[in-house]
Every structure is written in structure tokens, then in C-alpha cells.
Design a protein that fits this description.
- The protein is an all-alpha fold.
- 91% of the residues lie in helices and 0% in strands.
- It contains four helices and no strands.
- The chain is flat and about 50 Å long.
- The termini are far apart.
Length: 88
């Protein structure tokens, strides 16, 4: 049962990654998973994230890089989808 759930949950993350950034290779899936979990924790326990950011400034910088990269990929993906809609 747990293996089945893991596969089902992986499919959810894969589809979310695809919809967010355009494709879902393993590196992008990992980035999106980290981004989603970090965002969730930041919203639910901001003091914890603030503490983590101060303990691990390199980690904070890496998370900023990941967020920026996801934002760029998302904007490019949306632009591409808008172009396809215009062509239809």
C-alpha cells in the first residue's frame, strides 16, 4: 500500500512540475518539491524558516536561486502556452 501511495504521490509531483515549468525531469521535480515544501513551511511556520535562513545562509541563497529559476521557467512556459493558444 505504501509503495502504491509513493508512486501515486510521485505522479502528483510530476504533473505539478510539468504544469509549473513545462516538463518534469528528475532535477526539476526535486527543485519543485523543495520549493513547494519550503513555501509551505514559510507560510505555516515563518519563525522556523527565519531561524533556518540564519543558520544556513548558503541554504537560503540556494533556495533563492531555486525560486528564481522556477519563476523564470514558469514565465517561459506560460509564454509558450500563450503562443500556442494564439496559433490555434
Amino acid at each position: 500500500m505504501m509503495k502504491e501511495f509513493s508512486e501515486q504521490f510521485d505522479a502528483l509531483v510530476e504533473k505539478y512540475t510539468e504544469l509549473l515549468v513545462g516538463d518534469s525531469d528528475s532535477d526539476k521535480k526535486e527543485m519543485v518539491t523543495q520549493y513547494a515544501l519550503y513555501s509551505f513551511i514559510a507560510k505555516n511556520m515563518p519563525a522556523l524558516v527565519k531561524h533556518w535562513n540564519s543558520l544556513y545562509p548558503d541554504g537560503k541563497d540556494e533556495m533563492k536561486r531555486i525560486v528564481g529559476q522556477i519563476k523564470e521557467m514558469n514565465e517561459a512556459h506560460r509564454a509558450e502556452m500563450n503562443e500556442k493558444k494564439k496559433e490555434e
